[in-house]
Amino acid sequence: MTEFFKGHGLGNDYIALEMDGLGFELTPPAVRLICDRHTGVGSDGILARVASATADFGLRIFNPDGSEAEKSGNGLRIFAAYLLERGDVGERAPFSVETPGGLVRMEVLSRSADGVLSVEAEMGTARFGSADVGLAGPERETDDEPLELESGDIVRINVVSIGNPHCVIFQDELDVEALRRRAPQISTHPAFARGVNVQFAVPVEPDGVDAWVWERGAGETRASGSSACAVAAAAVRRGMVSERQVAVRMPGGRLDVHVRDDWSLVLRGPVESVYRGALTDGMRRRLETLG
Questions:
Q1: What is the pLDDT of residue 190?
Q2: For 23, which DSSP code?
Q3: Gap between the Cα atoms of 243 and 228, Å rounded
Q4: Rounded to whole angstroms, how far apart are CA atoms 98 and 79?
Q5: Which residues are annotated as a binding site?
Q6: Are 230 and 265 in contact (CB under 8 A)?
Q7: What are the residues whose beta carbons fall under 8 Å from the beta carbon of 29, sequence distance 6 or more?
Q8: Within 13 A of 99's CA, how many CA atoms are on the CB side?
Q9: Which domains, from first to last, does the chain contain?
Q10: Which among 134, 133, 79 has a CA at the least distance from the CA of 108?
Q11: For the purposes of burial, counting CB atoms within 10 Å of the CB of 105, is it exposed (0-12), middle (13-18) or buried (19 or more)?
């Protein structure tokens, strides 16, 4: 039996499972099949627990297109719910997770009567250099730097690394149809060596920003924890907000980000478990053939 757990953070859903003893490789075709919402389990990605020599737990994060992500704020919070259900961590008991994008310290803060968890994650330090996100050209920090798209449109970008690459674009309003046209061009723009996660953001309050997210390897996403961190850091740096406790509101809901004076970031938000299940023998056989 290949058992798995499914959870979501503000509508951004992940499957969590144990890499050890899986019985098949998580190749890109296998990941795509599992994540397919018609022929697989269906999810925005897979969280695979692995061993770690430097943290309490290790984590590999797979996008639904089969590529790997360095870090995911929602994925990490869902991973915390998975560990809590397994009895591997407790409430109000800090633990650490090693990701390809760096070490993350986490804590399950509380559980509501209907089972919604509040989880906090120290997401690392925001960096604003072009080399940190793989942006072509001389080393620099971007401040509304113009970027020409394949369509001929010009967008003004602010790059942020949270251990994974982000491109924040401040707007006066969120025109979703225009964003859907532009975001894929930005995410795969040749100026970004590894691709980039894209956020369009509108500052609306001294401590609040509305945002819309397009994730590298996943597309339009109802919410993203690392994206919320990038938006908050860029908004503080550009003076778009006057507070360092920033509420980032996305289509799926709100995440809270504390941007400390040293640019380290603390993310807090809800997560819910959805179900546990097991892959059938037939599905396992199909996955075994996709190496």
A1: 98
A2: S
A3: 15
A4: 12
A5: 12, 63, 73-74, 164, 197, 215-216, 225-226
A6: no
A7: 66, 290
A8: 29
A9: 2-123+272-288 (3.10.310.10), 130-262 (3.10.310.10)
A10: 79
A11: middle
**Binding region for substrate:** 12, 63, 73-74, 164, 197, 215-216, 225-226
| Residue 149 identity | L
69 burial (CB, 10 Å; 0-12 / 13-18 / 19+) is buried
Closest alpha carbon to 4 in 100, 91, 114, 14:
14
- The rounded percent of the chain whose pLDDT value lies above 90 is 98
Start-to-end CA distance of the chain, whole Å, equals 19
- Report strand pairing: 12-18 vs 197-205: unpaired
Query: CA 274 → CA 6, 134, 252, 255, 277, distances in Å?
Result: 5, 36, 16, 19, 10
Residues 6+ apart with CB under 8 A from 82: 5, 7, 16, 47, 49, 273
Task: Assign residue 239 a region (left: φ > 0; alpha: ψ between -120 and 50; beta: otherwise).
Answer: left
Q: Which pLDDT tens digit goes with each residue over 160-205?
A: 999 999 999 999 999 999 999 999 999 999 999 999 999 999 999 9
Strands 12-18 and 46-50: parallel
